Amino acid sequence: MTTATPAAPPQAVPPDRSPSSGRETKPRRKLTPYWLLLPGIAWLVVFFAVPMVYQASTSLQTGSLEAGFKVTWHISTYWDALVEYKWHFVRSFSYAAIATVLCLAVGYPLAYTIAFKANRRWRNVILILVIAPFFTSFLIRTLAWKTILSDGGPVVGALNTLHVLDVTNALGLTSGDRVLATPLAVVCGLTYNFLPFMILPLYTSLERIDPRLHEAAGDLYARPFTTFRKVTFPISLPGVVAGTLLTFIPASGDYINAQLLGSPSEQMVGNGIQKQFLNVLDYPTAAALSFILMALILGMVTVYMRKAGTEELV
Prior knowledge:
The protein is mainly α. Helix content is 72%, strand content 3%.
């Protein structure tokens, strides 16, 4: 005769693991990231997407300020703007490229010194000095360069004494014995104003490098230059890419430096956009120039990113 074993009592389900509780909390957890993204998305829609659509509509309009502008899908405005301002685009990208190279040449040694050679106290002091120009208006900083590069100033006198202007005259960067109102003045202004945008990403990338990698390279009898070429520079390449992009992109669309430090023959595409918007009041041409500039920069950045072979930006 067999005895029946009593059935085990049902186990209580914890409140937080109950089916009803799971159905309530799981959708909330899935929606939380989207709720956090909502303010940023709203900001981009209101202040980026909507103005972009409005600018695209403006670029396809015809008319005048008195009679009004209407969308007529006048696509030839883009071609006319590109033909009329082709040399403005050439100057914009040339000046921006030269300024970016100069910022990299000046900024990399400084960022390297801050990251590896300076102690903590001096590191903070140098970083504050790098960021300090941001506390002054962009316009005031550029006007200061107008005084620095004036014809009777010590900078021009020193360049004349050292015969540096003879070299820059041969390169077409200056004219005669003056620097102001020349391409060199515009490049100097761009380099100074956007130099912090190069130094900070470089420092961030270099500061992440483990010093033991340098010690290991020394243990393998690598010279300092070899260590820099084989270890330091390849690891800091994301900072180089980020710094060059942060410098080149705003420098290409800048118009303050060319307006204050250059002459009409050194004007960039930003000056053309400003002229069409504020002086000529030809809004379709100004909008078309803006879109052409964005498209060219986007294309160059895409090619540059693929050639650089890195996607990790700092």
